[in-house]
């Protein structure tokens, strides 16, 4: 409504009674009458609990085609029109009214003419008056406030504050003004009407009487926020410049500080005020584009630059990352609105020096990597030729290409400045990386060394990398990079002797058969946790991890099961665990019996029955050791470890656990800034003309067949190793326990890599 100049309001009549009751529910509306008869409602009455929501949803749905100029709220429809395309506002408004009435006639919605307003410069909307000048208080409500008698008890005080608080967005420093009154609402406080209470009572009434006309929020104009804090309250104002350049208030908000918050240092109080402002104005600011936050505390400009921040500040900074804003400093003597919010004297307004807060915007994330790829095309002769050809393909352009590029020229295309490549028809579309050594090494770091990758082996790194990027001889680059990785050589253990496997039935559905276990003996973290509980889906190989103390009980383990498994995937039909007392406790037995779950217990002293979880435990131990140099505590890197495991291709399925569960790959940080839905990072991985449901069914069927074929071969491979250690000639020290986060090897170890199917040429 920000740009509209003429308004109308329609009030719908008999609104609830126009919706029929479901036939099976008619009997539930029966009422007894004095004549001893039962009456049943055939249409929806007003007394039903969900009747208002049902009606509001119905009207919103029926009038959805005109919501841009005729939004509705329950039985009220508000029509607003500006002057556009050379037409006056009256002409446009008539067209809008006519379109709305035709739609109402079509759906048999009727208005009460006595309550309708047409062609007005201002209309009442939910307790306020909205017009071309902005939003102001309803004079009738202001009159009621002004005539309110002096309060005599807590009940009357609650009634007064109920109405005043509803209108508080029009009053600056409302929380500070009512502080003496709110003190009377505390428990065990004797009612005593003092001079301070009377002064606060009069100040609230005066503030509502002199309330300014607020601006109607215009999403096409940038917002700015003013915030501040005092010893007992915090406040903020959402503001915008109107078409004449005047600074207009859109929204006031304030609250008193809690007892614990009053003990915060000044810096934290000011930061709390900024957090409060963003939370209260979230609907206006989130996704609206860059905006400015004005504060009279200069240190907020560098809030994230300190190497030592409290846990509280760390939580707040993660909240700020959702918004795209910068902080500008205004000294207290210049910050007029902040002074008003906190009850300080007013001074002339003046904008001071600016500084940008160093937080990344989550609302519109981007990655410099993609921009660097685009920029590097200019220095690669082959890439420049392919870009020119892909932008304007023709026989003449093809003949101008270098001979080694012509045969595959048809596989390239351009999208948003990126050169894309597809190896064969219906293959994954990948970003072409130019011949830039530093850029390629940076990309391989993201897909091997980054916490989201988790130092996978050569084959898994290759499959993960080629999901998004392509260049010639890519496999050789990956092989040399992984072979030279110091962390992999130091952490990855050599092969060791293990007993023959005993296969379990091959699963055919996600999260129906699962396995669970504990990883013991890790160094205590800040919360004295030394163990990790591991849940594994036996079909997709997806894992969930949680840090727990060594003395975790059966009840706590059951709670973890509900929080991490049941609420996301439902109850599995089959659970495999070891003989740990936490799994065999009567609590588990009774719970699984009631839920109809078959608890499969592995054979004592033979953990190979649950070899899948034992393998995950080993991989997890390697990951935690790999992350030891990047995280202060092993528990901090558990989320990254879980992501890395779930984003690695598994040999038995040929896909990552993420893909098996959701039929899509997660978007990696390196792919931020690419919006093409055809790219694999967060989008569709395969371009297919078949319906998605059919493709998903075929994929699941293929994975089931592959698992059945892989199961015996996996046993044979493992059984051949029984009693011997193969593939390690140069290992100087071996440590098979997960104890601590020290390296598993003192020197490099050579061994055979499990070769996965490579779908891309090298």
UniProtKB/TrEMBL annotation:
GO terms for molecular function: catalytic activity; nucleic acid binding. CDD domains: RNase_HI_RT_Ty3, RT_LTR. Residues 674-762 are annotated as: Disordered. It holds the Pfam family rve. This is Integrase catalytic domain-containing protein. Keywords: Multifunctional enzyme. It comes from the Eukaryota. Residues 501-665 form the Integrase catalytic domain. Residues 689-716, 725-744 have a biased composition (Polar residues). GO terms for biological process: DNA integration. Residues 1-165 form the Reverse transcriptase domain.
